[in-house]
TrEMBL record:
Family: Belongs to the autoinducer-2 exporter (AI-2E) (TC 2.A.86) family.
InterPro entries on file: AI-2E-like
UniProt GO BP: transmembrane transport
Name of the protein described by the UniProt record: Permease
Membrane topology: Multi-pass membrane protein
Annotated organism of origin: Pediococcus argentinicus
Domain of life: Bacteria
Transmembrane segments: 21-47, 53-71, 92-112, 179-201, 242-271, 283-310, 322-340, 346-365
Localization per record: Cell membrane
């Protein structure tokens, strides 16, 4: 097809209405993407082997990746500052971590176990007392509707808990095989994780150069740049969240111990784990402490609220800005939307890993959009230079 034919084709009604119409082209591309997604949804059996493979190796790989981002900066520092070989530094760190784990098993787990059992046994009394206090506060005739809603919420909560416990008891025998299989998978993952972590710490810094060999020569530097940016985003988020969670649990434990709140250690550890959920974890961890504080005395409830305010102030003003910084550049509203969407789709796993997954997708999409802007030429702004008038001498 010569140039004249091409120009005539573009000037025809089909070219004007279809090819040169951006709205139509965008709709056609959207339709193709939806058709591809529809076809993929119909052939999900192709991905079954990959799903089974990930179910086997997913847990140890994820755990090893999390600990890699936590330990790798220390290994790099030992190698650069003290000229220590990575194998020796990794081995020393592993020994120290093993000693800490053994100490935690011997010293902390019995205390946490006894406190957890006591908390579970006494929780109905704590909850009923808190509900009765709220109902007493709402006895004002002007708040009768609110009181009815609180009573309905309490009845629904108790009924839901009772139904869940009954269902769990009825399905325990039938689901015993699944429970054993899950425990076996967890045990195997925990055992194999240190070996994966060791080689990841030893050779992980060479992984981008190895993967770059599968890309064209002119795209290798770009791949290394993108992978380095993704690595920085993940390392900063995971390492920062774990460090902040540790200090949050420690601050809650110290604060509750000072005021004499029951189950301070268990609530502090739970607060640390729940803090892995951004913006929501600390508030979720406050529910048991508020209920227990209200059961003990109004003064204890007030002290619990004071501890929470102090913890939030220290975390928000000092710890989080110092540890996390602002490199992720994710708006709080976006974080809440991602948490809700990922939690609805993937459960607790989505809540924990939704933000780092969004950070990775953000890097990839931003680079893809920058490439599209460079190649399309649609985003180039033409600057009109106005000539400056010459001054008369």
């Amino acid at each position: 097809m010569n140039n004249k034919t091409t120009k005539g084709f573009k000037k025809s009604w089909f070219g004007k209405l279809i090819l040169n119409n951006r709205v139509v082209v965008a709709l056609m591309i959207t339709l193709l993407v939806l058709l591809i997604l529809l076809v993929v949804s119909k052939i999900t059996w192709i991905f079954t082997p990959f799903k089974q493979f990930f179910n086997i190796v997913g847990l140890p790989i994820v755990l090893a990746g999390v600990f890699y981002y936590l330990i790798n900066p220390l290994v790099d520092r030992l190698e650069q500052r003290f000229k220590m070989k990575r194998t020796w530094s990794i081995s020393i760190i592993f020994v120290v971590v093993a000693i800490l784990i053994v100490w935690g098993i011997v010293a902390l787990i019995p205390v946490v176990r006894s406190q957890s059992i006591a908390l579970i046994n006494n929780w109905p009394d704590y909850w009923n007392h808190a509900v009765s206090e709220v109902n007493g506060f709402l006895r004002d005739p002007r708040l009768s509707e609110v009181q009815k809603q609180v009573q309905n919420i309490n009845k629904d909560t108790v009924a839901s808990i009772t139904k869940s416990v009954s269902s769990f008891a009825n399905n325990t025998v039938s689901s015993l095989g699944n429970v054993i299989g899950m425990l076996t998978k967890v045990i195997i993952g925990v055992i194999t994780m240190p070996f994966i972590l060791f080689y990841l710490l030893k050779d992980g810094h060479q992984l981008p150069n190895y993967l770059a060999r599968f890309f064209p020569v002119n795209q290798r530097e770009r791949f290394k740049s993108i992978s380095g940016e993704i690595n920085n985003q993940l390392s900063q988020y995971i390492r920062g969240q774990l460090i902040v969670a540790f200090f949050v649990g420690l601050m809650f434990f110290i604060g509750y111990t000072i005021i004499g709140l029951k189950f301070a250690l268990t609530i502090g550890i739970a607060a640390g784990f729940l803090n892995l959920i951004p913006y929501l974890g600390s508030f979720l961890a406050m529910i048991p402490s508020i209920v227990i504080g209200a059961f003990m005395s109004p003064a204890m409830l007030l002290q619990v609220l004071v501890v929470f305010v102090i913890e939030q102030t220290i975390e928000g003003r000092f710890i989080s800005p110092l540890v996390l910084g602002s490199n992720l550049s994710i708006h709080p509203v976006t974080i809440l939307i991602v948490l809700l969407a990922s939690g609805q789709m993937f459960g607790i796993i989505g809540v924990i890993f939704g933000i780092p997954a969004y950070a990775v997708l953000k890097v990839l999409i931003s680079h893809l959009f920058n490439w599209f802007k460079r190649t399309s030429g649609e985003y180039q702004e033409t600057v009109v230079m106005t000539p400056t008038p010459k001054k008369n001498k």
